[in-house]
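Figure 2 data, in text form.
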Amino acid sequence: MATIPAAADAATWFGHPRQLARLFSTELWERFGFYGLRALLVLYLTKHFVFGDRVAGGMYGAMLSMTYLTPFIGGIMADRFLGSKRAVKFGAIIMAVGYFVLCFGGEAAKPTATFDGVTHAVSIEQHGGVEQRFVVASGQRLLIHGNDDGSVALMNGGTTVRTLAKDAFTGDATRSPLYVAIMLAALSAIVVGNGFFKPNISTMVGALYAPGDRRRDAGFTIFYMGINLGSLGSQLLCPVLADTFGWWAGFGLAAAGMLVAWSLIQFDGGRLAGYGEPPASAATKDRAPLIYVLAVLATALPWLLFSNTITATAAPAGAGIVAYLLALPILGKLLFATFLIGVPAILVWSWRAGSRTEFEMMLAAMILIVFNVTFWTLFEQAGSSLTLFADRNTDLSIFGLFTITAGQTQFFNAIFIVLLAPVFAAMWAALARRGAEPGIPVKFAIALIGVGAGFLFLVWGTHYAGPDFKVAIWWLAGLYLIHSMAELCISPVGLSMITKLSIARVVGMMMGMWFLSISVAEYVGGIVAQGASVDTVGGQVTNLKLSLDTYAGVFQTIGFWAVVIGGILLAGSFLLKRLMHGVD
């Protein structure tokens, strides 16, 4: 273990070690970059590279799922060889490089339409402030118009020349393989860099406090507020720059934020001396250069997984669950296999190696982990299907004064968390004083019901869509308000729950299962977003009514089942409470 100086320090920051301010700022700027990417990624894939919704949703899910897997490796490298400080700096540099590489997206993909076995170029034109798609076929310039039943009409001067069945018309694009490869390399660098940065910045915060220091939990609360402040800023600014100047500007701002995070650690003026230093064994043989080289080479693995996600072909409808699982991309197979084998295997081990009480507590933890997958699967629609819904079927005008972009709608979650977190903290404290604070299973159940209720609220709003098949932005804001309150019921208690319920000698492994569950949820969230896919031509839907109906149908289904699942957990919460043996 690295030598850690005494936490007692004469100079404090809000009653905490002054180094917390620097680590808080570092996390803020790193999250500024990451959430800037999150706000832009699906829109970038569907508009610049003109990928269909299915590919974009799969890529988004793969990206976020891998960001929850790589920290396991990054944490080991820091503990054994690098030390947290060097790992954080290296991760920041790799991530900044990834963001900068995204700035070089090259020429936008050229949309195409294929029917009758022939691929035609598609032109995009503005008419009355509305984008329209045209294709030249049989010597005629024809407007592409989607029908309510999913078929496509080719029109000339208001007259339908041909009607093509849904399966007889395919929208795609001609895109540069080189620029696609560069984009995948950038995302891969961000995934690897995140693995070094994310776990080790938190480790440095923990090192500020001596064992038993009661300020630790409050210090982490302050530290994690930096996440929400950083995401709030980037989700407002990056989409504006991307919309005004081009994608390069949005990604460039994210890269600048990442460089600020790196500089705060690199040029700390000695303020972080003694924190996050390499282990003593590294003094005799420093393996850092080798690790850096291997980490750069390791970006090839996520690159291959991303490529496989793009090229994977879905199983035919009605083929069955086995055929569906076999058709999943490699990443999906690995995640599901690990999770489905790992959960029962750990329970079998705990039944054999632990006491009955320990086994029951582990069983309660595993049950809550499974429910955790459901919550984050639906919550993470924010960056995928909900962003596309905002782009296509939401009136983004604010009181008629100005208009925000689709990517900016994600800031609602961040601002609600910043505003509501102190309220919820005070509410839980007040309930605790009265002995009425809900237990962990009840909070999980409330969160699941809440995330479902948010989707049902938005579905209600679709009944009030205007003649342009767009809902007022306040319906989307209402969804984010409900989702933010649900998040505050589950997010703060998850990690604490794992440490309290796990058998002491496998706490680390159970932490790994917790993050694996979130990784699985992020991936499944991409699958759910694929279920809300709408056929597009040149990155845009050709029938907004069909788009609205599709989103409303999917959101109603997942909202209903989330409420049902949350209700089941609520009904069984007293049984879980017994299994937890007083842990709360």
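Caption note: The radius of gyration is 25 Å.
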